[in-house]
Known about the structure:
Rossmann fold, pyruvate-formate lyase- activating enzyme, 7-stranded mixed beta sheet, 19 strands, globular
Amino acid sequence: MNQKHHTRVDVLFVNPPSPDGHVYIRDINRSGRRSREQTIWPQTSLAYLAAVVKNEGYTIDIIDCIAEEISWNTFKEIIELIIPKFVVINVITSIVSNDLYTAFLGKYINAATIAVGPHISSLPEETLKRFPCLDCGIIGEAEITIKELILNLDKEESLEQVKGLVYRDKNGDIQVNPEREFIENLDELPIPLHELLPVSKYRLPYIGSNYTFVLASRGCPFKCTFCRQPIMWKRQVRKRSAQSLFNELKYLNKIGINNIMFHADTFTIDKGIVIELCNIIIREKLKVRWICNSRVDTIDSEMLVLMKKAGCWMIAYGIESGSDQILQNVKKGEAATVAQAKTAVLWTKKAGIKVWAYFIIGLPGENHDTVNKTIQLAKTISADIVNFAVGAPYPGTELYDQARENKWLESESWEKFDQNYSAILSFPGFSSDDTIQSIGLAYKKWYLRPSGFVSLLKGINSWKDLRLLFRIGIEHLKISK
């Protein structure tokens, strides 16, 4: 048993065990999935909630079963040892039955069980109906709700006034309270308890291990039909100030964490904040190595040069498709065109920053010609690493509603909603099998080129990296089999 988790606590925050030994990505506002890249995401969202609850005087712990490779049997031993009064569970759609076994174990020790994340936010009543062992779910932004919920439960007070909550009343009936207003100023949130996370266990291709997320903003003004962020943030953009971000970087530096990924729907949405942050990092000579995500129409060459100087070494771009028509179909936006993608990657590489390019296959309007355009774009833009994902219509997205209306859905089973492994959209002339076969073809054509293979080798800094990249390659190349 992991000896780190042996002290009794009031509130236990859980990233549940894997159902099958594979790595799964869970986050409080992102679509979860099985990770073909063996990426282990930091549970910074849970660290935020833990910081809020700790400030109310409760003892807390975070158990990241994915990062620490804790099995269900071991987790059961741990939870029986520490006997928390409250168990807070990070839940994703594709393995929801697995995740909510945590709630079953929680009820076994008589704890109150609480779910967070986009699944419970998009399907609150349905989830509580399906899983009787789940007491409550937090809908949307969780920090204020989790504080009020635990305080009320601890005092055995009514939950009627707790906004942003789905719960069972004393009669066992499911109640959905009014939604909660967003936190206007994200700078008011406490610094997450990164020190409770198994940071050394987190890993990402190229960046390696020992990294964490720093939340930069919440919300995105764009209208991509496949994106789940509107479920949580309603497209209302709220940004942390440059000084607030720097303060967290400085704190992380003091506890020995210098590898950072800025976590945001679009980190570069506000150029002013990015530029100010970079200038502070440079002026204060803070040693930090960071990556971020971006849209191809939110950057410029001058900002990229400054970002590089301030420690940025990789940017992940959601390019999605090599077809402008597909981009229009999913409301990617007028400016996020194929031409702009080529320009953005060119500027980024010229600034000395690596590029991780994300693509999606199986979106509305897809056909074999558009797939070929996507593969060709991926091969020609000089990205350092690529990802080809399945067009997944997650519940709560516009794509999900569109799929149901047009009868594109092959399954309503929540466990089939996984953008890495399960295609459930079938279009006239382009089936779900075509999507899977096309993704396998895309990976083969990208990685089996000399330049693709060389790109992988550049990410190797140790034997551990070599083993990881070998596993990634096998996963990529066997998808169409």
